[in-house]
Amino acid sequence: MPDINKIVLTGGPCAGKTTALVKITEYFSAFGYKVFNVPEVPTIFSTAGWNYLTPNRELYYRGERAILETQLALENQFMDLANVCTKPVLIICDRGTMDISAYIKPEEWNEITAMAGTNTNELLERYDAVLHLVSAADGAEQYYTTATNATRYEQANEEGLRLARELDKKIIKAWTGHPHLRVINNHDDFEAKLNRVLNEISKVVGLPQPVQEERIFRVEIVGEIPECSESEITQTYLVAEPGSEVRLRRRRFAGGKVVNVHRSKKRLSETEIIETERQVDNNLYEQMLQQADPYRATIKKRRQSFIWKGQFFEIDTFLEPIDNLVMMETKGITESETVNFPPFVKVVEDVTGNPKYLNYNIALNR
Question: CB atoms < 10 A from the CB of 140, how many?
């Protein structure tokens, strides 16, 4: 059986998905992958005459159910095709099943998933990774347009931009809880956004990717963080061979959902690394804890994740083994770009590249 990875490419309106799909197909085909692109099912229904803004609630409800069932059927058919390929396969879904939940009431979502014989947890587990491209309406308004999608209802005015930002956040919330959800920032240079997409997929399939430093700051929180996703993280480092770093993370989200992720990172050279992640069940998680590095303490911290002006931030408040540290991290912002610091955060120090503030080294504080 070939190596198969299924990845969702999602995001708010005018996020760059169409261009990214072309880039992904070209890039990974050159590495010998068979790339299948599963089309965006809601657009198929919209162009066929269905409208999610219809005042007819029964038509709306049945339409959403039909979209879910069609999405599942299409993905399953492409999985059947992938299983008979002789090359490694990438299945790229232009949006996925959980996108539908952003447009429907929670009780209706529970009804239609039950009718389809599934549920939210099972749907999240269908995919190896979810890449959310932030809408141009948030932080790159000058590039926002409705011209590339005739079925888009958010117009290029202030009200349309507001609706697009709200939808962007609803979609991220719908996918929150997936172990490999990555939010791809807007950039002054759109090519940088596309390169981040390629790098994240390279991590999933185990291809080398260039070493990229995350922008990390020691901060103080001086105001309320709006519309953030909160989770509790327990992070344990495992014994590993020299030059490698192996981490076991348990992340507990609001509502009680727990996700366990095993990550391995190995540096190939000064400029390249191989980083892989996989989700593990609770039994395997407990077994792996037996391999904990005896020289490093378990890290416990509270994480708050949010978008501010088109950039994705994560604020970690450390609880153990130290409790006097708050750090803010943002991925994918190049050195030449300006960080859009939110007003509810006071930056104390830029610690990017400072080994003292790496989680791997913080764990030495026993």
Answer: 21
